[in-house]
Amino acid sequence: MAGPDIDSATTIIVTEAPPDSKTRRYDRQLRLWAASGQNALESSRLLVISGSATSTSILKNLVLPGIGHFTILDPAKVTPEDAGNNFFLEGPSSIGRFRAEEAVRLLGELNEGAEGKADLRSLEEVLEKDKDWLTEFTIVIAHNLEAGLLERLSALLWQDESFPPLVVVRSAGFLAEFYIQFHEHAVIESHSETVPSLRIDKPFPALLDYSASLDFENMDVTDHGHIPYVYILVRVLEEWKKSHNGNPPSSYDEKKEFKKIIVGMKKKIDEENFDEAEAQAYRCWTSTIVPSEIRALFQDPKVNSLTPKSAPFFHLVAALAKFTEEQPPNTLPLTSTLPDMKASTNSYISLQKLYKARAEEEKTFFKSYLTVPVDDATIDAFVKNAHALKLLRGKRWGALDKDPSAIAAAVESAPKQLSIHLSLSALSSLSTKQQPNAPLTVTIEALVAEAQALLPAGTDLPENFAEAVGEIVRAPTADLPNTAALLGGMVAQEVIKMITKQYIPIDGSCLIDLIETWTGVL
């Protein structure tokens, strides 16, 4: 037999361009928050107040993923204590140098793409002479700030919704707390585990027609075992409705009978796609509706009082409300994202094309309801995640301590978390009453008195308070490396959520106990 005529054929080798250095460096995190999240990080400007061990640990976990700029505001010089607990100082050689400059220099070695700056002014000076500078950042982080300065900073950043969020971090020994002060935080890409509806109970025309056209009886056995469960369920449901007054199964017996019909369609006992259809049968009697949390957004005051200057999120929600009201089947826009299922490659791709075509049609209808320009990438993300939108409204730092009823309730519902919060608040309050530059003297009796003053009259301290206050007395000023390391990871994670506007940030105070190794939210 003659071989192939190699000379008469042209071989074309298609190769993909190798990923650039940025993609290689950030590969894993790009899988978490994609290019849009990475761009947000690289455009961010962070202000960190103090160059403590905790502050630099937080920054380490923000510099590595590629924040654009960070400034450390700290006039202090490195002490022997700093050199002993801060990994971003060079031991004895850093002693006597400015802490901010040393930390910026060494943090910068982690990622040349992150710009760092040391500002040697005190926060008090900035608040007095240059407070507008504080509002120019994307987010502000403050660690163990003196109570009076923290109150002034918090008040300043709360004055306007456009001012940056404030992350308050407090720690002493093995106990810690952090809180994010923000007015409003809208999340489109929440990465919810709730999957969008496939609309099996309300199939669009192309899906219904294709499902009805399949000849299950005369189909090849191999093809029969690779029909996606979506087609199976749509077909069985439509036939069921014909004999049940247009209604899906409702009672237990009806649902059992419905599943029996699906299993009875098997040609071979090992057809996993029909087993999958049986397991997914609940989709047939689970009505596709607008989730209550999304419908609640439609009534938000900012949605109902739109102006051209309103944030795009509210314009998108308003358009979504009109879409669900006017476009049949009066539910959220279809997404082309499909779950994995037992199917042949060709049948799965065919199903995917049906969903993608319909999703594009509905997205076009959706865009017609927008009254202001919104970029296509944002619209795509919004439509894809319309089932899991989140709008968080925060409170100013200190709101809990000014709400007697909330504190009284927390004594009963979250005594361990409240004990740490009260202990750290008592330490902060006591510190302001010490003589300037005098050694901090902390006693259990003094802390108990300060904590009791925060409680409503007649309310006892939580039962866990004694353990928490004991750790505060033991190490009132200790910025321990292991506490700093854990705080560094946790705080950085929440800061990234705020910057990228992806995933859901912690809402409230996060309390950390490294003695008993637990965390909680208050």
From TrEMBL:
InterPro entries attached to this UniProt entry: APP-BP1, ThiF/MoeB/HesA, ThiF_NAD_FAD-bd, Ubiquitin-activating_enz
One GO BP annotation of this record: protein neddylation
GO CC, alphabetical: cytoplasm
Disordered as annotated region, ranges: 1-20
A GO molecular-function annotation: NEDD8 activating enzyme activity
Pfam families on file: ThiF (PF00899)
Protein name listed in UniProt: NEDD8-activating enzyme E1 regulatory subunit
Source organism: Laccaria amethystina LaAM-08-1
